[in-house]
Specification:
heterodimer; A: mainly alpha; 13 helices; disordered N terminus; B: alpha+beta; 9-stranded mixed beta sheet; 4-stranded antiparallel beta sheet; 17 helices; 17 strands; 32% helix
Chain lengths: 341, 552
């Protein structure tokens, strides 16, 4: 958390008592949330592990890939991957490895899980983050503009655009933009994630645009509604009556207060786009986490499924913590005391 | 609520600082992640179209690894095909042959259970070390190592010993096996370096442990799900092909693959959906075609399960199967209707004289599509008014889905009500492996792994394979068929094996444990400038240096 005024003693300002307390509360809040992550992660992985074991099929049939086989080969595979051990034994072996930094290897590819997740996360993280930025920037700007022109032509046009992108399935949008911008205009590569920095950004631009446009509709509608709600508040009328410029009223007051639901949406969007990335990665042939998860689930590749679940659970909690912190930064009325009980 | 003026001032500054930090931080984080994620190894230079020396080839799926022993798939075969010598190579009909691409120069069967392979001299791995008989023996022995759990162990059942001596390798079998000569022509015959493997056997073949190549190209980069890059092997003494490097891209979506081909971002692919060949052929800048794949689809019927025990019921189903319609739907008319039973006939054609083959095939009982005959057969059965059954449909295979839907429609007309249980391919396959009771009707499809005419008959009709872990999902048991199978495998004379195969086709066709429907072609597509694939491409292209089949 940034507290700029406290670090500028030349202004003769020192941290008031209530702000120091607030910082302590915040630190405690983050620490507790991170601690909660541990039992939560254990619970999530136990559930996921059990589901993987209960689900029909199994890693052996995934490895064999519908090829003719013999009982001996099946037995050899079970011994190799300890599949004859009891479920608790298998889970304990995996959990012990995680605690010592060894997340195991994929049953199907033999790749170390952690290394593979790191490799794939780079693609998904860049794509999803860029998608979020596109969604937030376009969505917020369009939402504010629509609110300012409420009921007019611009509002209708922007609202229609948002509905269009919101209601178009991600894969259809991906294929459409792939055809138009990748194939017809040749502006973007059609597949792959690129080799070097420039190439990687070039390759991920179109998938990020797909995710961004899909999320933009949601952000735009939320921003519009939130801004309209703020415009009806007394403080906006009061600010205008005080003779403040319209720019100041909109961006300095109304927009700041409208940001809180948008922030919540941003957090949700980040997680939503992570899910949406599965289809986008498939269409664009990207080696991302979504793709990896689908392959692992199809192949009952439980070390990979477990690793991904841990990462995703951590990711979700982290995003929620960031959103909570940003709440407090944006709105000084928000406190952590209640959250901590 | 309007904040207090002093609070507004502090809050404003704080807000602006936060905003700046957030923006700069986000951009920095994205750049760092993108930079770390981007790789630029020597072999991964972006494709230069002007240089014209990189062939970019698309696969629908990534190989799980590059070690064929534990990754037995067509995709692994395609990536490794141009990078590894095989011990032997499949000929037009899959028969074992030798060439500059094989580590074996010549071979002979000393007797029914002993084979001696003479290793080519002067050939080297991609690091310059010589290829020896010890490497060949080691490569075969990998499949016998239980700890490795080779997915191809099935082919090595009955191998007693593999020993290197001088420049020869001797393989001894516990009993005669007419399939053995074929084994080393396929995926089980990939050559590995003993020294390279022993250096780091753990996770051999994954992205951090790429096997040492021995073919015209060597693998320099592999990232599961992302890419594989091959460059020329400097120690390759055989034919040099046009392209300096081959780059594999993994594009799951067929539409994205087609767009990539049309735009010239890839040069070709073997992953053309059978039902879309027409569409690909009409696409601008694309040349697409088909080849004989030896693959087929059909149904097994569990002869020990409820109504299917009744021969008249099975015959009724056979008559009600509209093979022509199903072939049209499942292959866009490009497949061939299979009336004769378990294929692939292509491998019989390579062994027996055409006249003899034709005469023997006439003795196979066929069931042309005829609903009246189907109804009549059902009337004669213990279920004259029909019955209900369920077929598990693997949704991953569009052709299987069409096949099951088509059969269900036909059977409804004769009074058999079929419920389709749609499920993912892998759990469906698990049901087959588990060999549970009441297997009923199962849709199956195969692409050949062996050109031996008895290979699939053994898997599907041998009594000992009607159990858990094996493929006789019909639970078909016939002592005479078992005898022919034993005789066919015991002989060194492939003509005897082929004749046994025909006798089995004639016998099994009468009791209908299996309904063949169609054989389907494989398909390829390249950019128009490459010009497509040569007619030499066949069912086992992925088990060899396939680049020789590409025009350019």
């Amino acid at each position: 958390m940034t507290r700029a005024p406290e670090s500028t003693p030349d202004e003769g300002w020192s941290a008031p008592e209530h702000l120091v307390t607030r910082r302590q509360w915040l630190t405690r809040y983050i620490a507790i949330r991170l601690l909660i992550l541990v039992p939560l992660a254990i619970l999530v992985t136990v559930v996921a592990f059990s589901l993987t074991q209960i689900a029909p099929g199994g890693p052996v049939s995934a490895i064999l890939g519908e090829r003719p086989t013999t009982p001996q080969t099946i037995e050899n595979l079970k011994v190799k991957y300890h599949l004859n051990d009891s479920i608790p034994e298998q889970y304990w072996r995996w959990a012990k490895g995680v605690l010592t930094g060894d997340w195991g290897s994929s049953i199907v590819t033999t790749e170390p899980v952690l290394g593979e997740i790191w490799h794939r996360a780079q693609v998904t993280l860049v794509m999803t983050s860029a998608g979020i930025i596109i969604a937030l920037v376009l969505g917020v700007v369009m939402g504010v503009l629509a609110a300012l022109r409420r009921g007019r032509l611009l509002d209708r046009v922007l609202s229609s655009i948002s509905v269009l992108f919101l209601s178009t399935p991600t894969f259809a949008l991906a294929l459409g933009l792939l055809y138009l911008l990748g194939f017809r205009f040749g502006w973007f590569p059609i597949f792959g994630s690129g080799d070097w920095l420039g190439s990687r950004l070039h390759h991920l631009a179109l998938p990020a645009l797909v995710l961004g446009l899909h999320g933009m509709g949601f952000v735009m509608r939320l921003t519009r509604a939130s801004m309209l709600e703020q415009f009806d508040e007394d403080y906006v009328a009061f600010a205008r009556a005080r003779g403040l410029s319209e720019r100041k009223v909109i961006w300095g007051y109304a927009f700041r207060n409208a940001l809180i639901p948008i922030l919540t949406a941003g957090g949700l969007l980040f997680l939503g786009l992570l899910t949406g990335s599965v289809l986008v990665e498939t269409v664009f042939g990207l080696p991302g986490l979504g793709n990896m998860l689908v392959t692992a689930v199809k192949g009952s590749d439980f070390p990979v499924i477990q690793g991904l679940i841990l990462i995703i659970a951590g990711w979700i909690i982290l995003v929620n913590i960031i959103v909570d912190i940003l709440y407090a930064v944006i709105d000084p009325r928000v406190g952590f005391e209640k959250a901590l009980g | 609520m309007v904040p207090e003026s002093s609070g507004r001032s502090r809050g404003g500054r704080r807000w602006r600082s936060l905003r700046s930090v957030a923006v700069v931080g986000a951009l920095l984080a994205l750049t760092i992640v993108a930079t770390l994620g981007a790789t630029s190894p020597a072999g991964a230079a972006p494709k230069s179209k002007s240089a014209g020396t990189t062939l970019t080839w698309a696969l629908a799926n990534s190989p799980a690894s590059l070690f064929n022993v534990t990754s037995f798939s067509t995709d692994t075969g395609i990536v490794t095909g141009n990078a590894f010598m095989r011990l032997l190579e499949p000929g037009t009909f899959g028969q074992p042959t030798t060439s500059e691409n094989t580590a074996v120069e010549s071979w002979k069967a000393v007797n029914d259970t002993t084979y001696v392979y003479k290793i080519r001299q002067g050939i080297k791995f991609a690091d310059g070390t010589p290829i020896t008989a010890a490497d060949v023996a080691f490569s075969i022995n990998l499949h016998l190592n239980k700890k490795l759990a080779s997915l191809m162990a099935l082919f090595f059942d009955g191998v007693k010993s593999v020993k290197a001596s001088g420049n020869s390798v001797t393989v001894k079998l516990t009993k005669p096996n007419s399939n053995w000569p074929y084994v080393l022509t396929g995926s089980p015959g990939v050559l590995y370096s003993k020294a390279d493997y022993l250096k780091n056997p753990k996770n051999y073949g994954n992205s951090g442990n790429i096997p040492l190549s021995s073919g015209p190209y060597m693998i320099t980069e592999f990232q599961t799900g992302d890419r594989a890059v091959l460059v020329r092997n400097p120690f390759w003494k055989g034919k040099k092909y046009k392209w300096d490097s081959i780059r594999f891209a993994f594009i799951l979506d067929p539409q994205a693959r087609l767009l990539a081909l049309e735009s010239g971002q890839i040069d070709g692919t073997f992953a053309v959906p059978n039902t879309q060949v027409d569409l690909w052929q009409k696409a601008p800048n694309v040349k697409a075609g088909t080849y004989v794949s030896g693959g087929w689809r059909g149904f097994t019927i569990d002869v020990e399960d409820g109504p299917f025990k009744d021969l008249n019921v099975r015959r009724a189903i056979a008559y009600a199967t509209d093979r022509k319609g199903l072939t049209q739907a499942g292959t866009s008319g490009r497949g061939a209707v299979l009336d004769e039973g378990l294929p692939p006939l292509i491998f019989l054609k390579g062994i027996l004289p055409p006249a003899e083959l034709k005469a023997e095939l006439k003795k196979v009982t066929v069931y042309p599509y005829d609903l009246d005959k189907a109804r009549a057969e059902l009337k004669k059965s213990a279920y004259p008014n029909g019955f209900s059954t369920t077929i598990n449909v693997p949704v991953d295979s569009a052709a299987s889905v069409q096949l099951c839907q088509g059969l269900a429609q036909s059977l409804k007309q004769i009074g058999i009500d079929v419920k389709l249980n749609f499920m993912a391919g892998q759990p469906r396959f698990q049901i087959l492996i588990d060999h549970g009771p009441n297997l009923g009707i199962q849709v199956i499809g195969e692409a050949p792994d062996s050109a031996n005419p008895l290979w699939y008959m053994d898997l599907y009709f041998n009594s000992i394979h009607a159990t858990k872990g094996f493929g006789n999902t019909s639970n078909y048991k016939n002592a005479q068929v078992d005898k022919w199978l034993a005789e066919g495998f015991a002989t060194g004379d492939l003509k005897v094996a082929a004749r046994d195969a025909l006798k089995i086709m004639q016998t099994t066709s009468q009791s209908v444990p299996y309904i063949s429907v169609f054989s389907f072609p494989g398909a390829w597509a390249t950019t128009a400038s490459i010009g497509g694939a040569k007619s030499s491409i066949g069912p086992f292209y992925y088990n060899q240096v396939w680049i020789k089949h590409i025009k350019a």
